[in-house]
Specification:
alpha+beta, 6-stranded mixed sheet, 3 helices, about 25% helix
Length: about 150
């Protein structure tokens, strides 16, 4: 990050954040690992997970059940922290008995509004905090199959 001025720091960091979301959405855990410090901390409403391997295990569990597509709606950078408003669409890959109180069939989706706070140092995230801004109101049902 440039300390003498703000000439390229925001665009560089915004580019980094957009690259992160593109990689997250690719469902490639090995590529995603490059963004996390080995001792990264993930904090959610469910508690804290420590270490890149624990965070990636959570990610692998999610993408086994869902296509998890995060869309950054607004990115704000303050020194070493990026705060991002996120639309997160989970589309079931298989039947899911309970996800935020909803049963889901393959192809059905739920949208969540989230806020992510990402602390980074030396090009890697050291702490990620994800907060729920809006609970899902309903499941977006899959369109009916068309007989052909």
């Amino acid at each position: 990050m440039c300390n003498c001025c703000r000439c390229n720091s925001v665009s560089l960091n915004e580019k980094f954040m957009r690259s992160y979301y593109s990689t997250y959405n690719s469902e490639d855990a090995d590529a995603l690992a490059e963004f996390y410090h080995a001792d990264v901390e993930l904090v959610t409403e469910e508690g804290a997970r420590h270490g890149a391997e624990n965070l990636l295990a959570t990610y692998r569990g999610l993408i086994a059940q869902f296509h998890d597509n995060m869309t950054p709606l607004h990115i704000s950078i303050q020194e070493n922290t990026a705060t991002v408003e996120i639309l997160d669409r989970f589309t079931a890959k298989q039947p899911v008995a309970d996800f935020f109180g909803f049963a889901m069939l393959p192809g059905e989706s739920i949208d969540l509004r989230l806020r992510g706070s990402y602390e980074f140092m030396d090009g890697k995230f050291t702490r990620v905090r994800i907060e729920m801004l809006q609970m899902p109101a309903s499941v977006r049902r899959a369109p009916p199959a068309v007989d052909g």
